[in-house]
Specification:
14 helices; 3 strands
Length: 332
């Protein structure tokens, strides 16, 4: 193996931008990576799943396929790999500029991934094994291409965590979300809109109990939360350099998901009061996109307020007025 090869393509010439084939051709040690990855995948195919209560298969990949097919809320996972690939392609010049080398300490990361999988296998938690699988793929890249490569690829690769199926574990998130959305919607309906409604758990009734709505798990915001968390993570890490701004954008997904679903449920109550329950249910079933529009609008509004180009503007009044402020380079 050649030590410290540099993958940089010919610089600053748009005509020489690398194609996908060029990028793959420039990657060193491909046979070693392919062999290690194949062995790692074989382990998880034959000894990846110890949970046989619903899907009798030793394969982690078989368990994933079954889990995805059982939950409509998991459908976003099919888009995540394409998002990762798109980000890798967008970062291709940066990745090709990385100095790569074999890294023996990557074996330590691989052993840690094995330990995570063993723990998941023993306690029959396939989701833990899934995290172990991702950690192992990351470790293999480190073994073959070194720590510089791991640093450069960390963010796009991290997004694969969103491929982990939540399944029944989502109840830990959906139940509190249901309660918060229901309480806020009832409070707004009563105190801001003057609509006399009653809350019982996640159910909402009008005073005569002729109209009833149930904030079911699908209405809790879990789907919009996962989608918003994915979008806010990408936006935060690509759009900001400051660590605290990145995390603020990422964590904003939680209150914004609640905000969007609260407005939607409150609108359902308002329309149901004015036009009847069927009209309210029509709004609830057909206008779920409003949740995303409100939340995304608020997210990008927050991002605009936090934008970093303002910080790069000259503060001295003696600075030439005709010189434009330099926009900071977006890094990941």
């Amino acid at each position: 193996m050649t030590a410290n090869p540099t993958l940089r393509p010919p610089a600053n010439n748009p005509a020489t931008l690398p194609t996908l084939a060029d990028c793959w051709r420039r990657m060193p040690h491909k046979p070693a990576f392919a062999a290690l990855l194949a062995g790692w995948a074989a382990l998880f195919h034959w000894l990846g799943n110890s949970t046989f209560g619903y899907k009798v298969t030793p394969s982690l990949f078989g368990w994933l396929q079954y889990s995805y097919s059982m939950k409509v809320e998991e459908e976003h996972v099919f888009l995540v790999p394409f998002v990762v690939i798109a980000l890798l392609w967008w970062k291709r010049d940066e990745l090709l500029a990385v100095r790569v080398r074999p890294w023996g300490l990557g074996l330590g990361l691989l052993l840690l991934a094995v330990a995570i999988h063993i723990a998941g296998y023993v306690v029959q938690q396939a989701r833990l094994s899934f995290l172990g699988f991702l950690a192992g793929v990351y470790a293999i890249m480190g073994i073959v291409w070194g720590p510089n490569w791991l640093r450069a690829i960390f963010f796009p690769f991290f997004l694969l965590v969103f491929c982990m199926p939540l399944g029944n574990a989502a109840e830990l998130i959906t139940f509190p979300l249901r309660m918060v959305v229901t309480q806020l919607s009832v409070g707004i309906s009563q105190h801001a809109l003057g609509i006399d409604v009653i809350r019982e758990g996640s159910q909402i009734f009008d005073a005569p109990r002729t109209i009833q709505y149930d904030v079911a798990p699908a209405c809790s915001g879990i789907r919009s939360l996962v989608a918003l968390l994915l979008i806010s993570t990408i936006y935060g890490f690509l759009g900001f350099k400051s660590i605290w701004k990145r995390w603020l954008i990422v964590l904003a997904a939680f209150p914004l998901a609640v905000l969007g679903n609260t407005i939607r449920i409150t609108t359902v109550v308002l329309v149901g009061k004015a036009l009847g329950q069927e009209s309210g249910m029509f709004i609830e079933q057909k206008f779920g996109i409003v949740t995303y529009i409100i939340a995304l609008g608020a997210l990008f509004g927050l991002g605009y307020w936090l934008r970093e180009d303002r910080e790069d503007m000259p503060k001295s009044e003696s600075a030439p007025a005709a010189t434009p402020a330099l926009r900071s380079e977006v890094t990941t």
